[in-house]
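tokens incoming
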């Protein structure tokens, strides 16, 4: 920072907030609530106007929330607004598949009854999740929400940060949090580079109505072009689709009209749920692995996609972000209670050490699974089918996989164990 006057402002002025969060998607509001409930003052800068996201109808965009993530939402007081619209995931079935041939007879099957804690996860629509966060933020005295604002610049000094918005307004705090996605401007302005690779795949996302009740079962078919996930939504006769294909083919499919799109989906989907029809808009997202080389910098931390973007093959993107939220909130709140400078390098390093291994393991794991399954090599196909069959027949291995998917393994932050900080 070259401007001495700016340095003086950042170093000496009374901050507007303790924490400034850039990004109001889902991780940003969750972190704001956790920190405010821990006694910190928080400002959230969200580029999108709140009504644009808080008052939308059904659009099919949904998330698979692990049990640990549900516990975090409950600890934050958000879950009561979601319980009635959340679909419990009671079983997960995963198998190889080929268009028009159905699933392999050797498959993985996980049942929620194999763990004592309850459903391993829940499907929740984006519109409900954000609306619950928005209502909670508006009701929280410790949170200032600045919607429809973008960040033009950020400055860091010895005691705080100043964020300049495109409108010319300035917001100051002791710590800056980047929760602004894979193209994080917060990370870029802090000089944090990213590493990763393009998968050459695109995720086609939509929702479908179907004749038969899904019975709370999530399906994952591993196709040569990429995985097809069929995820149960509330009501029994609607499911969310995340369909990964080679990028060129995906572009051709996305360009089709609705009926031709369904004609391409049906042989991959199968007929186990009866006839299907589109239930909302269609989306397409290019897939890549993208990791920030550091999760922290001077008075700055990254959470969610700003820190890491992984393949959706395991449906863990938002769950990884909420684990970041739980860990960072715990580190900052406990440091504040001990009288430490919450923006000090050693405090923020605790967060990075906590999250680095888990994120790297998930990134490597999803990358390997995608490489192993997104092909039609007969040798690999036989080996992976045999492996899935063996795991499915081992109660101990099944239970371990279920607990891992539910977010119950490892060094779990207090909020993800359902314990207030």
């Amino acid at each position: 920072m070259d401007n001495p006057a700016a340095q003086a402002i950042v170093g000496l002025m009374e901050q507007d907030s303790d924490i400034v969060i850039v990004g109001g998607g889902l991780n940003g509001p969750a972190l704001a609530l956790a920190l405010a409930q821990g006694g910190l003052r928080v400002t959230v800068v969200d580029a999108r106007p709140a009504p644009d996201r808080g008052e939308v109808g059904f659009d099919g965009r949904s998330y698979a929330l692990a049990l640990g993530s549900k516990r975090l939402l409950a600890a934050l007081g958000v879950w009561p607004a979601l319980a009635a619209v959340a679909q419990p995931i009671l079983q997960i079935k995963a198998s190889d598949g080929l268009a028009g041939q159905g699933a392999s007879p050797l498959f993985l099957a996980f049942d929620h009854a194999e763990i004592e804690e309850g459903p391993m996860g829940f499907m929740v629509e984006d519109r409900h999740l954000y609306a619950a966060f928005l209502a909670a933020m508006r009701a929280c005295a410790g949170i200032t929400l600045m919607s429809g604002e973008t960040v033009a610049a950020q400055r860091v000094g010895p005691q705080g940060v100043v964020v300049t918005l495109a409108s010319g307004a300035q917001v100051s705090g002791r710590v800056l949090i980047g929760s602004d996605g894979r193209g994080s401007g917060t990370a870029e302005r802090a000089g944090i580079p990213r590493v990763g690779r393009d998968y050459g795949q695109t995720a086609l996302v939509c929702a479908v109505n179907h004749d038969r009740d899904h019975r709370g079962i999530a399906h994952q078919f591993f196709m040569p072009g990429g995985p097809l996930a069929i995820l149960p939504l509330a009501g029994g006769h609607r499911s969310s689709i995340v369909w990964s294909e080679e990028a060129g083919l995906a572009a051709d499919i996305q360009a089709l009209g609705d009926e031709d799109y369904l004609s391409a989906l049906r042989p991959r989907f199968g007929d186990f749920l009866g006839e299907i029809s589109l239930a909302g808009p269609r989306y397409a997202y290019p897939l890549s692995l993208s990791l920030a080389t550091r999760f922290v910098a001077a008075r700055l931390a990254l959470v969610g996609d700003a820190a890491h973007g992984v393949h959706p093959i395991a449906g863990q993107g938002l769950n990884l972000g909420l684990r970041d939220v739980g860990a960072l909130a715990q580190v900052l709140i406990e440091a504040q209670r001990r009288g430490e400078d919450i923006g000090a390098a050693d405090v923020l390093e605790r967060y990075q050490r906590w999250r680095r291994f888990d994120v790297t393991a998930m990134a490597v794991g999803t990358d390997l699974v995608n490489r192993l399954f997104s092909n039609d090599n007969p040798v690999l196909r036989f080996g992976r089918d045999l492996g899935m069959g063996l795991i499915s027949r081992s109660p101990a291995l099944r239970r371990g996989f279920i607990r891992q998917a539910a977010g119950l393994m490892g060094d779990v932050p207090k909020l993800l164990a359902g314990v207030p900080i």
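note: Confidence is low (pLDDT under 50) at residues 1-12.
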